Amino acid sequence: MVIGLIPARFASTRLPGKPLVDLGGMSMIQRVVAQARQANLTRVVVATDDERIRQHVQDFGGEAVLTRPDHPSGTDRLWEAFQQLGSPTGVRCIVNIQGDEPFIHPAQINALVDLFADEATAPGIATLVKPVVSEEELFSPHLPKVVLDQQNHALYFSRHPLPYQRGRAPAEWLAHHRYLRHLGLYAYQPAVLEQLTRLPVSALEAAESLEQLRWLEAGFRIRCAETGLDAFGIDTPEDVAKARARLGV
Questions:
Q1: How far is CA 51 from the centre of its chain?
Q2: Are residues 204 and 123 in the same domain?
Q3: pLDDT tens, 17-55?
Q4: Which of 108, 162, 207, 212 qualifies as a FRET site for 33, CA 20 to 30 Å off?
């Protein structure tokens, strides 16, 4: 069994009520659910902190659970949602699907799910990476970068380009090294997810504002799967306009 959980908060500093924003006749959260249902998932559930979102999801035929509003991270919300589902046994992995990515491709979800096919080699945590293709991507602090070891485990995540290239101008970096960007899609074994919720904020996490650094500092390994497909998250009204243009509406 593979469960896809979609955290969806109503509160947003830049775009309040973001999951309910209309995108061509469908809400953003409905589009995320529709995309997730095309992946190799046994069950797709929205984990929200707001009754309006829960009711909306149920109205379009989706499944949703109402979680506490005061979770410090999406990871904590995920674990509560899993418990509300009864902590079912036989779950190979729980996939954390971002609720603000209405164009997420089922193949991206499947790339992570496939890593858990063999119980003997399944990672505790997995995430997605994508090659950096532009200088704008490389130097954007909003698009975290990642470096991997030879077994595709993450060594470090940073908002700064990694590695630094000594002796070369930054404009030349992309031509001399294959950089990878992190996409915020995760999958976890249930027992590992529970352990992650017990970890305190770490020094590296506080410095970079990247929760996955807390896990690395605590000694957890994160396996990375590569995709050539991009991600398109919605955080601002400008992003909504771009999404509607992409849909032709």
A1: 23
A2: yes
A3: 899 999 999 999 999 999 999 999 999 999 999 999 999
A4: 212
